[in-house]
Write a structure and sequence with these properties.
The chain is an alpha+beta fold. It has one domain: C8orf32 fold. Helix content is 27%, strand content 15%. It has seven helices and six strands. It has a four-stranded antiparallel β-sheet with strand order 5-4-3-6, with helices on one face. Strands 1-2 form a two-stranded parallel ribbon. A hairpin with a 5-residue loop joins strand 4 and strand 5. Helix 4 packs across helix 5.
Length: 226
């Protein structure tokens, strides 16, 4: 999935906010340190691999605090897919790479008919599109490696009801924010994971804005920091 957006919509994808707090000192310092010896798409790869490998996926670990705000994810070094995506977006924005959030709707597991959202990152590419990347973390059966111009995701919709949900969003989905607000440790929240049906997508929050088609709009070229 490659989405384009008008120039005037790029500013939210570089902005700090309450959840994606890219202006937090710890987030900004880490982003600059990781990016200091890279250039071009290598900067994206470096930030992606750090979040993928250095922040535990709380569900895979089976324990840990439920985090949401990027700086909290960094401090605790744990988060669900949504939280790890919040941190990666914040790191990218901290070094002036436009980034936002994407989602899939997937089966919770093979034994139940319920669905959950899965959080991804959309990073702005120099050809004025967003590339979806998945920093959830590798484990047996999942080995995500990042390369330019090619999507590498942990999951692909395969079962009835599963779908790639459209759009790249400057702020987290409200259902995700509400689910993570329960806080605490992992076990209580795994029965409260967020789901939004395709019929109700997007869920409509004034601060949760989706880009529109830019086919007839002026586009900017993103130059990654060197």
């Amino acid at each position: 999935m490659r989405d384009t957006i008008p120039t005037t919509d790029l500013r939210p994808f570089l902005a700090s906010c309450d959840v994606i707090d890219s202006n937090a000192d710890a987030v900004r310092d880490l982003a600059r340190r990781l990016a200091s010896n890279t250039e071009g798409f290598g900067t994206v790869v470096k930030l992606f691999e750090w979040v993928r490998d250095e922040v535990a996926h709380t569900g895979d670990a089976g324990e840990g605090k439920i985090t949401s705000r990027a700086s909290d994810v960094l401090r605790e070094r744990t988060g669900l897919c949504y939280a790890k995506s919040h941190l990666l977006v914040a790191l990218l924005r901290a070094v002036s790479i436009p980034a936002g959030l994407c989602y899939q709707r997937l089966r919770y597991d093979e034994a139940t008919p319920s669905f959950v959202l899965h959080g991804l990152v959309g990073v702005r590419m120099p050809d004025d599109t967003f590339l979806r990347i998945d920093p959830r973390g590798n484990k047996p059966g999942i080995d995500v490696q990042l390369a330019p111009w090619r999507e590498a995701l942990a999951f692909r919709p395969e079962h009835p009801g599963e779908v790639d949900l459209p759009g790249v969003f400057a702020r987290p989905n409200p259902a995700v924010v509400s689910a993570l607000a329960i806080g605490g440790i992992w076990h209580p929240v795994d029965t409260h994971l967020p789901d939004v049906s395709p019929e109700d997508w997007p869920a409509g929050d004034a601060d949760w804005t989706s880009p529109q088609s830019a086919r007839e709009s002026e586009l900017v070229t993103v130059e990654y920091p060197r």
